[in-house]
Amino acid sequence: MPRHEGWKEWSLRDIGEWRSGGTPSKGRPDYWNGSVPWVSPKDMKVFALRDTLDHISERALSDGARHVPAGSIFIVVRGMILAHTFPVCLAEQPMAFNQDVKAIVTNSSVDGRFLAHWLHGRSDALLRLVTEATHGTKRIDLRDLLAHSITLPPLPEQRRIAEILDTVDEAIRKTEEIITKLKQVKQGLLHDLLTRGIDDNGELRDPDRHPEQFKDSPLGRIPKAWEPVELGDLVSASRPIVYGILMPGQGHPGGVPVVKVKDIKNGVVAAHGLLLTSPAIDYQYRRSRLAEGDLLFTIRGTVGRTAFVPSRLHDANITQDTARIGLVRGNPDFVREYLSMPRPRGFIETHTIGVAVKGINLRDVRRIPLALPAQAEADGIASRLLGIRRRVAMERAQASKLRLLKHGLMEDLLSGSIRVTALLEEPAE
Fold first, then answer.
1. What percent of the chain has pLDDT over 70?
2. pTM of the model
3. Which contacts (CB < 8 Å, 24+ apart) does range 234-241 have?
């Protein structure tokens, strides 16, 4: 780590007081459900910890339960989460904590928020200190952790760096709140559009004011103009719903891409890392070759994941765990969204069988029930849903940019590669 004027190297042992936590007796009801937040690893999914799932009473504190003041730092030192994550959070109020967590009450030379950012930024290095106890639980040897070195700038510089990183964190938090709200709006809009539809004026139909516009069907009450169909009715006889390759091999350089269940996440097909099968195997399964715009539906393992085939995978193939659905009727976006409605989902869950590996057969996939509007109405519904999906995508892209910005700032500011000395003369915003 570079040396800079005024920066001093410490060991983590010397940055403050390290405190151990504990669990009050579960046999004492008067120790629990009080007003004091009690931290365990399950709470440590955020940087700034404002509250916890469990609380203990003031009586538990007076009888020896351990607690620390606001501004203390919590880290997990035992638990399976350490197999992949090093949780760090900052207490926003006085809190108690359990035995899987260590708390750091910093000394007067260390800003707690700076230290929390530093620990978070060094999580990869600190995870290398994780070992495994005899019963398999992951843990960090405290002696190794306390010996770890940290180079600290003067206290005013620590505080300014922490303020800058806090500002980016706040921007990320607000963006994530927007994403959550948009997803909630989408769910409400999705339900309304897929149960009420839109009339010729582009307005949602009102089943209370105009019950004559609705009818009973195997799918419940649906708009009168909608047609109850099965998924198999929406494909052509020349290109039916099929599954793919039984044994695609272990890989063939320069071969044909094959989409597996694990490649379909969050409604899209992974851009990289697809298995490549040999042209000979692909030719044997040419019946399941893909075309741009085909709907993929996973039928084994995790049943019901969906994604459209992008242009880059035109003429690719799939494994036996995925079905290809080449829609020739209805709006594809509408059909895909309708598959998430309660009646189709219930049908899928009822016909998914198996214990070790769950699956649904193609006969039942073809029988999945849907309600189909006229093409113009389906297109209008899909357009509205596309608009909100684009807004969610834009906000997710913004959140990704902010995370990259924070990563870069942490690399530069916490190492001293970029100094904030000039900013110390300016008032913090």
1. 97
2. 0.74
3. 234/325, 234/327, 234/328, 234/329, 234/330, 234/335, 234/370, 234/372, 235/325, 235/326, 235/327, 235/328, 235/329, 236/326, 236/328, 239/326, 239/328, 241/323, 241/324, 241/325, 241/362, 241/365, 241/366
